[in-house]
Amino acid sequence: MHNKKIIFRIYLFVLIVFVIVKFNGSINDLINQVNTIRWNRTFGIWNANLIPFRTITGLIKHMHAMWAIKSLLANIIAFIPWGFLLPYLYKRYYNFVSFLFLSFTFVVFIELFQFITMLGYFDIDDILLNLTGCLIGYFINFLLLR
Question: Can you tell me the distance from the alpha carbon of 54 to that of 37, in angstroms, rounded to the nearest whole number?
Fold first, then answer.
């Protein structure tokens, strides 16, 4: 069980570095991202989307483009391991309500972190897509291990 928890911790580290912070190997890109968001904020343009399905609709309209497919799928796929591993490693998260509450809290925290640090955007659609990934992982766990 200890090795499985190490795998979960590695997954969380990778999720934080590459998905949340979006680190691609360049500190300059991160600095530019923060500076761009800071600049936009001076003009009243905030790094947030609070309108459900605005981003998702835009991505669906561009499904012919690989970047749109990647964006949709990445937001879902990145959280499937969370949904699978969390109830597998921690028995208290077998309970669907407990699992859903923690998953929702975690995903909202990620979005708030990106908004506050200006490393990304708070997007209600990311919350929906990330939770979809969590739920897919949870149901894969449910089907395979129960």
Answer: 19
